[in-house]
Amino acid sequence: MQNSLLLNEQVLQSADFILKTKARSFIFGRRLYQIQTQPLDAEPSLLFWLKTQQRVGAYSKHAILGFQHELGMYALLHSLGAHFLLPFQIVPVKKLKHQLFDACESQGLLLPDASPAFDQIPEELGVGQIKWLLLQIVEMFDELTRLGWLHADIKKEHFVVYEGRVRLIDFEQTLALNTSSLTTMNATPRYMAPELFQGQAKSIQSDIYAFGIVLLEWLTGQRLQAQSYEDWAYLHCQRLNIDLPQHFLCFKPLLQMLLAKQKSQRVDSFDPIKTCLITEIV
């Protein structure tokens, strides 16, 4: 699989750039640009996204390191032959000389436009289609862990569909599986496994739990609600219930595997999840 976009400088220089950064990301020096290429000869116009990071000034050191880590992860995972990556290109932003760019932006991550995987309405899909979507995701997780890494930032926005297959994005927080010490806790409370609130390190099981939350919210059509970090801790550690619509009750055994509150009772690999999807859900 070809993971390099290999867009030439001329195409990028003539493209239309629109700044799409969210306010919170802007504060930390992150920039996200939507890029529309100009049609050349018989080639159609194409849509891309370019992510950059300010490297100096009063910006978050964590954001700068996270962005550099992500660039390194794309290169590493590509070299390892990962099948779940979008095609990508690491772009020397300074060479583009676009008026939107700041002198502090030196490199950018260029990705093609892709559809959010969980924007699909589950009621409009058959059980077989949902199973196929979930199996693709589990296979991606399995491949990532076999390559020696945790994603460590699972949320619905990080799953996209490109050329008919689900892909995984955003590798800023990936952790090596052999990481033994507790790193800075920067997880999103909505997706945090109970043990993370108790000070434990991220693990395969915390990624599995986060995936379970993504699936639960998608199948129910309801986002979990909490007002504070303490409320999120209470929700995940004590109050979370798996209450599915009648037509999706076949997925309850799967969600029980993913969302066990006790880490010792939650599955610790992706093989049982694949088996459940293939043999138990009809």
Structure description:
The protein is 34% helix and 15% strand. Helix 4 packs antiparallel against helix 9 (271-279). The protein folds into two domains: 9-113, Phosphorylase Kinase, domain 1 (2-Layer Sandwich); 116-279, Transferase(Phosphotransferase) domain 1 (Transferase(Phosphotransferase), domain 1, Orthogonal Bundle), CATH 1.10.510.10. A hairpin with a 2-residue loop joins strand 8 and strand 9 (165-168). The chain is an alpha+beta fold. The protein has helices at 9-13, 23-27, 61-79, 127-146, 194-197, 204-220, 229-239, 252-258, 271-279, and strands spanning 16-19, 30-36, 47-53, 89-92, 107-112, 115-116, 149-150, 159-162, 165-168, 175-176. The strands form three sheets. The protein has a five-stranded antiparallel beta sheet with strand order 1-2-3-5-4. A three-stranded antiparallel beta sheet has the order 6-8-9.
Rg from C-alpha positions? 20 Å
The string of secondary-structure elements, in order, is HEHEEHEEEHEEEEHHHHH
Q: State the separation between the terminal residues, measured CA to CA.
A: 32 Å
> What's the story with the biggest beta sheet?
5 strands, antiparallel
- What structural category do the secondary elements indicate? alpha+beta
State which percent range the strand residues make up.
Answer: 5-15%
CATH topology of the largest domain: Transferase(Phosphotransferase), domain 1
How confident is the prediction overall: mean pLDDT?
89
Amount of helix? 25-40%
Note the total helix count. 9
> What's the oligomerization state?
single chain
Domain Protein kinase: 1-282
Organism: Acinetobacter celticus
Protein name: Protein kinase domain-containing protein
InterPro entries: Kinase-like_dom_sf, Prot_kinase_dom
